[in-house]
Amino acid sequence: MTTQTPTQSTPARSHPEPHQETTWRTYFSFSTDHKVIGIQYLVTTFVFYLIGGALATAVRTELATPEVDFVSREVYNGLFTVHATVMIFLWIVPAGTGAFGNYLLPLMLGARDMAFPKLNAVAFWMIPPAGVLLMLSFIWGAPAAGWTSYPPLSIVTNPVGEMIWILSLLILGTSSILGAVNFLTTILKMRMPGLGLNQMPLFCWAMLAASALILLSTPVLAGALILLSFDIVAGTAFFNPTGGGDPVVYQHMFWFYSHPAVYIMILPVFGMISEILPVHSRKPIFGYKAIAYSSLAISFLGLVVWAHHMFTSGTPPWLRMFFMIATMVIAVPTGIKVFSWLATIWGGKLELNSAMLFALGFVSMFVIGGISGVMVAAVPFDIHVHDTYFIVAHIHYVLFGGSVFGLYAGIYHWFPKMTGRMMNEFWGRVHFVLTFIGFNITFMPMHKLGLEGMNRRIAEYDPKYAALNLVCTVGTYILAVSTFPFIFNAIWSWWKGPKAGDNPWRALTLEWQTSSPPPVENFVGEPVLVTEPYAYGLNGSTPGISLEPEATPSPAT
Amino acid sequence: MLAGIALTLVSLWYGQNHGLMPLEGSEESLPIDSLFNLMMTIGTGLFLLVQGVIVVAVLRFRRRQGDLADGPYIEGNIPLEILWTAIPAVIVMILAVYSFEVYRQIGGLGAMDHAMAHAQPQPQMARLAGAAIAAPLAEASPTSLADAPSPEPVLSDATYQLPGDGPYEIQALGLQYAWIFTYPDTGVVTGELHVPVGREVLLKINAQDVLHAFWVPEYRLKQDAIPGRPTEIRFTPRTAGEYPVICAELCGPYHGAMKTRVIAHSPQEFAAWMQEQQVASASGLEQAIATADPAQRSVEQILAPHIESLGISPEVLQQLHPPMVHAHAS
């Protein structure tokens, strides 16, 4: 078990600098405390999640009937474009890496803060203006070429909205790169003495893999976007075929980032699930090294599969075969994780609280997205379902059933640490049930719609698809309603919830060995490593051992 | 053990009886559906296994009230981990090899080699690629039709015959928001795609303005249309009937309205249709351009000239409909 021991005072309950206590004002300031920044990320991105959800609800309202009757076709294209952009770049990427990465990494590593605190604050404060900018694009005509923004359509449609979209993404990409530099440096250089890489909690491994992906792939997206902006405003012809440019080159550059982006969005959540399942199963994580190294394998493979989004784009056949095989191979490290999680809960003592329900829901839903993922990797099948609702279903099972379920699990699990208060269990379970039902009603029928012939990104469709589409829309409304119990629960609990204590889950990772919320520099005194992060079932298995770890003398700071 | 057998049987049954795919309209759809059925079988098994483990764990291993003890200290099991690494690895290798074989069967490898080797665009396509909208097309097309492999002077009683060997070539041009199909052996131009059943068709695809994608769900085949970069697709129609042609790449606000039909005729009917078209090819072009305006498009309008020119009786039209009815019902 890992723990820290104090040199001067009793641990964790005393705040050494009470005058620096965080108040609500701190969260609107240029704070360099990684915990404040983490919560700033989390709340900001959640607000954007609600905006993205409102856009999705508008999209599904339009699709409730086969005719174009709710918004115009032009507005509809803007709605789904901004919906996808917000959900990816302003919610899942910054929430998974920015919010939880920032909040948890220094605590789990026994560090006082991130390696570059000011850079960290700069990275966060780039997000609100970029998000507001993107929302303002609706005034001049929102970007309407899809979140993929393929030229030539993106060159000739709503140039003002398109340029705002590019600018917003460049800012968000820069923020993401700055964050990744910080995470990598912190993981590699700021670990407490005695904490080797192979003793790190698995979330840190996942962040290591995700940060490497961000650093390697995001600059390529920035390059593609800058060239695209030249085509739009300066009349160059990098991608514009009327001047001899090649639109397929853009697709390669775009997916060189945007496929790894899927792993940037899912790897931190994998890490969170690997933390949450052992705690609430009271069992060690099964196969630590396999899970840790499979994150790296996924990260590497994620870099060499991008053209599987382009099987119908005239990609040469031998390349299609290469990308097909590389993509299918990702199923192996992903399968290792899923089976290891199942083995972790098997034979444990499961506490089915809200965090655990969402974590189990994550495993259950992500597997469906994983299975359909292997299917669409097969070139002959993908040629049929590419750009259809089958793909829409697949990405939502991965990104909503996967990432968003995982993020909710993370919020329920670490809320007591972040705020010092417990969330309401009853409303947490209501939230889970509504989300689980609404999610499956919304997205399960889309598999069939896509196989039968419904293409994506359309405001009108063949009336023979009307019934299933209505079901999807009803599911969307259930999903929309499901967020309300969560919002009220979170606000109420933060304000009036019962006190959590330092370690309400009797967890063994380092962040639970300090106070809730932790003091400004995380630990009073110097933390010292005593044992592994997942040693449940050792030491007589009594909570007393977990709660009051044996103190080990450490050198003075 | 019993659960394992039940799981296997359910997977095998569901893999064959999922009923998720539309009618199999092309020869290519058969191996593709076999591959899908195999993946559905494996996928169903894996789905049931994982969900089953979660459900059983939740039912069997819930913490009792007041039980604060930890579970057993089990950090891993190397043979088990090797097993669940090796089995998925073998499965994906089988799927990869099988997919490769299906891809070879449907001509994916040969077709694209061809496209790479002869990357220079068709002369007609090159001219059209620079054109901005449909209006210049009206001027450009007649001249390019003259370039087309010289159509035989058609006598009203001459019988049309499909060209002898190799796939039957048709050119497709995608533009906002319609398809224009040109039959180089006769110079006929249409807004709907007519193909002979049982004969391999080579569709050479180009785009005039933005990306489009040619997709016939019943054929399980899709190919992007890329401005300035010709692509192609091969298929062999299997059953006579009308199937939707759908644009599957976002091409603008009316993307959802960019639809037409592929009409698969028996070879005799195809010859008869083509002969009528040759007489009235000029009007065919006008009709094709009219379809460029989505506001003017309706199924009846598009079909009307064809019904007249073919002299199809309503009964024949009814015969063509059943496959579509089937697709609606499925």
Characterization of this structure:
The complex is a heterodimer of chains A (557) and B (330). Chain A is mostly helical. Chain A has a single domain, classed as Cytochrome c oxidase-like, subunit I domain (Cytochrome C Oxidase, Chain A), CATH 1.20.210.10. Helices cover 65% and strands 1% of the residues of chain A. Chain A has 17 helices and 2 strands. Chain A has helices at 34-62, 73-109, 117-125, 127-140, 153-156, 159-189, 202-233, 247-281, 288-302, 317-329, 331-345, 354-377, 379-385, 389-419, 425-452, 466-496, 543-547; strands at residues 2-4, 527-529. Chain B contains 11 helices and 10 strands.
Number of extended strands of chain A: 2
Q: Determine and state the CATH class of the largest domain in chain B.
A: Mainly Beta
Q: The CATH topology of chain A, please? A: Cytochrome C Oxidase, Chain A
CATH topology of the largest domain in chain B: Immunoglobulin-like
Helix content, binned percent of chain A: 55-70%
The H-level CATH homologous superfamily of the largest domain in chain B, spelled out, is Cupredoxins -  blue copper proteins
List the helices and strands and how they pair.
The complex is a heterodimer of chains A (557) and B (330).
Chain A: E1 2-4, H1 34-62, H2 73-109, H3 117-125, H4 127-140, H5 153-156, H6 159-189, H7 202-233, H8 247-281, H9 288-302, H10 317-329, H11 331-345, H12 354-377, H13 379-385, H14 389-419, H15 425-452, H16 466-496, E2 527-529, H17 543-547
Antiparallel strand pairs in A: 1-2
Helix pairs in contact in A: 1-2, 1-3, 1-16, 2-4, 2-6, 2-7, 2-8, 2-14, 3-6, 4-6, 6-7, 7-8, 7-9, 8-9, 8-11, 8-12, 8-14, 9-11, 11-12, 12-14, 12-15, 14-15, 15-16
Chain B: H1 2-17, H2 29-60, H3 78-105, H4 108-117, H5 123-130, H6 134-147, E1 168-175, E2 178-183, E3 188-190, E4 193-196, E5 201-207, E6 212-216, E7 221-225, E8 231-235, E9 241-247, E10 259-265, H7 267-279, H8 281-290, H9 299-310, H10 314-320, H11 322-329
Helix pairs in contact in B: 1-2, 2-3, 5-6
